[in-house]
Specification:
Largest sheet: none
Number of helices: 6
Structural class: mainly alpha
Oligomer: single chain
Low-confidence stretches: 28-36
Strand content: under 5%
Number of strands: 0
Order of helices and strands: HHHHHH
Length: about 200
Amino acid sequence: MAPPARGVCGTVRASMFLLRHRRTLNALSVVANSVSTMVSARTRVLLAAASLTGGILAGGTVDRVIVGGPAWQQIGIGTWAQFSRHADLGAGLVAYPVEGIGATLLSIAAAISYYFDRIRRRGVAIPMYLAALLYIVGLVVTAKAAPIMLGLSAPQSTDALSQAFDDFYFWGLYLRGATDLLAFLAQIWAFASLSGAE
């Protein structure tokens, strides 16, 4: 009968140990649960950088659609083409691709980082992945708009310039601008979901 007594004593000792260290074990459990449900600092930094770049991109597009487009139509298509040759085909040849490709790559990196955080919150995952997808769609639409702008480097008739203006505003600003703006709003949604979940 001695062996069962030893087993009972071991069980009693284990129970007393657990009772004495219950607070410590509960605290460790809370820490372990919070670590497993936290989004990494890497994901937050990438999302912040993507949102900053995307905000600049979306803001510039909204300005060009609401302010610039109507003004260029009143000033004249020839003046728009001349301005575009100096702006879009000047410093814009570097600045706009850096903005568009940069926002896309940062958004994709944030989505990949979030995936590897192994957090399964639909309220964060949906806008995070949606933003990356919308930026990719924006780049595809830019592939249609960019040749229109690049075509302005050669002299064109007034009718051809008018068509280029309409086509560029449709593909480059209305469609691509909509994807950029929606992607930026999705990033803000992701930030709000991250803040609300913690």
